[in-house]
Write a structure and sequence with these properties.
By secondary structure, this protein is an all-alpha fold. It is built from 1 helix and no strands.
Length: 65
């Protein structure tokens, strides 16, 4: 009986190994895609901030000239 339980547990582990590996790869891929998106959005936000800072600086200089 104990041997049958041990074999059944081993079979279950074998059956779950591949789906678990696929799930891990899927999570890695999703995380990588998310990181790329965040990086792109961060760059875009930085450019926007630079543009607004330049505009503000020009406005201040225009008022003091």
């Amino acid at each position: 009986m104990a041997e049958q339980v041990k074999q059944a547990a081993s079979d279950v582990a074998d059956n779950l190994r591949e789906p678990a590996q696929q799930a891990v790869e899927s999570v890695k891929s999703t995380a990588s895609d998310a990181a790329s998106t965040v990086t792109e959005q961060g760059r875009s936000a930085a450019e926007d901030v630079k543009g607004r800072a330049t505009e503000a600086k020009e406005n201040v200089q225009g008022r003091t000239s």
